[in-house]
Amino acid sequence: MSLHATQMPSSRPPSRLAKALSPGGPVTCIEDLRVVAERRVPRMFYDYADSGSWTESTYRANSADFAAIKLRQRVAVDMTNRTLASTMVGQPVAMPVALAPTGLTGMQHADGEILAARAAAKAGVPFTLSTMSICSIEDVAENTDRPFWFQLYVMKDRDFIDRLIGRAQAAGCSALVLTLDLQILGQRHKDIKNGLSTPPKPTLRNLINLATKPAWCLGMLGTQRRTFRNIAGHAKGVTDLSSLSAWTAEQFDPTLNWDDVARIKERWGGKLILKGILDPDDAELAVRSGADALIVSNHGGRQLDGALSSIEALPAIADAVGGRMEILFDGGIRSGQDVLKALALGATGTFIGRAFLYGLGAMGERGVTLALDIIRKELDVSMAMCGLRDVTRVDGAILARNPYAVRA
User: Fold this and answer.
1) Rounded Cα gap, residues 182 and 299, in angstroms
2) Is 110 within 8 Å of 222 (Cβ atoms)?
3) What is the pLDDT of residues 333-388, one digit of tens each?
4) Based on CB atoms within 10 Å of each CB, which residue in 6, 254, 267, 286 is the most buried?
């Protein structure tokens, strides 16, 4: 599908499925999809996606802090021939939005990573596969026809990491997203209370909850992809692959440093994106690393509770980088207006995580497509009302109020 075919919002009415799934009528926003996903996805997996660490203050701030940024409405300007076409890390995109790497995506809906990758390809935006995915690199490559990005966690077994990078190269992945902010796991109370595991352990509580999710259960019965397939059969000495927290505690490497970044950059040899930058000093180190882009991100509020929201951190990082490196943004986006505000504060592209997971949990591939359609339309209309027709021209001039501005 061409970029021009996807750059304008869809005029199609909501599908009958979307109408039937939404208790309040047609699905019109990301929140509608969240409500449906909460009803359809088992509690432990819905909570895994829709929660943060400790008190969840940073998780909530990621979304809430967008509200303080105000846009300038302009009138009597030509709003025809608008375009959302842009580039992210040198790759043409139909709009400056990519699907973020999210663990256990295939537990929101059977074969979830494959379905999300297909929806992203149709929409003309990048899909990023997580190391901790349910569908493997090979699963996604065999069931899609567009290159995707791969997200890498650094583990103690460096031989496994090298082989994982090799598998991403063999699959034709067009960029490597190296996550830097998960050397140790922030405590997520809901995951502990729910006994998060893949597949769910057959406890009485889980069985009662699963009984209320028949469509999800039927989908899972129809697939063999129910564990961490990037790891199963590939990593040595794996003891309890069903437990995400056990695996990360045992295998993720707390010694990760910038020398490792340099080694991985050399081993990969392609486009490298560094995810998890939240401080200007780290942004400077990211520039010096020679990577192609960084992602301003606090891991969705799932690591250091009490850290800055991503949108509050963005302006200072953009100021520190000063155009020497491409800046991408991740954290709290629930609308096209959020995308617009992130672009105005210095990002050249954005990622959505929970927003597409809600769509996936609600109605599979069609739900991801719907989530992207919603964000595309909101971005397009809001940009036009700010007096612009080309998304690549968005900057701080469209803001009436920016409480996070860098002050000299």
Assistant:
1) 8
2) yes
3) 999 999 999 999 999 999 999 999 999 999 999 999 999 999 999 999 999 999 99
4) 286
Q: How far apart are CA 253 and CA 260, in angstroms?
A: 11
- Which residue numbers are catalytic? 299
DSSP string computed for 145-209: SS--EEEE--BS-HHHHHHHHHHHHHTT-SEEEEE-S-SSPPP-HHHHHHT--SSPP--HHHHHH
**Quick one: CA dihedral 342, 144, 199, 228, positive or negative?**
negative
Q: Report the C-alpha gap between 46 and 341 in whole angstroms.
A: 27
Helix 336-344 / helix 310-321 crossing angle, nearest 10 deg? 30
Contact 203, 175 (CB under 8 A): no
Cβ neighbors of 230 (< 8 A, separation 6 or more) are: 131, 132, 133, 136, 137, 164, 167
Task: Bin 276: left if φ > 0, else alpha if -120 < ψ < 50, else beta.
Answer: left
CA–CA distance, 248 with 231 (Å, rounded to integer): 12
Beta bridge partners of 88: 91
H-type alpha helices, 53-157: 57-64, 112-123, 137-143
- Identify whether the C-beta of residue 358 lies closer than 8 Å to the C-beta of residue 39: no
Residue 71 C-beta-side C-alpha neighbours within 13 Å? 25
Question: Residue 68 CB: number of other CB atoms within 10 A?
Answer: 13
**Tokens representing 61?**
């701030």
Rounded Cα gap, residues 42 and 110, in angstroms: 12
pTM as predicted: 0.92
Beta partners for residue 129, in sequence order: 150
Please give the Cα distance from 333 to 381 (Å, whole number).
Answer: 17
**What are the tens digits of pLDDT across the range 95-148?**
999 999 999 999 999 999 999 999 999 999 999 999 999 999 999 999 999 999
Beta bridge partners of 155: 252
Alpha-carbon gap, residue 379 to 13, rounded angstroms: 18
List the domains of the chain with CATH numbers.
Answer: 14-401 (3.20.20.70)
Which of 399, 179, 191, 372 lies closest to 278 in space, CA to CA?
A: 179
Q: Which residue has the tokens 């995707």?
A: 148
CA distance 48 to 52: 8
CA atoms within 13 A on the CB side of 278: 24
Helix (H, G, I), strand (E, B) or coil at 275: strand
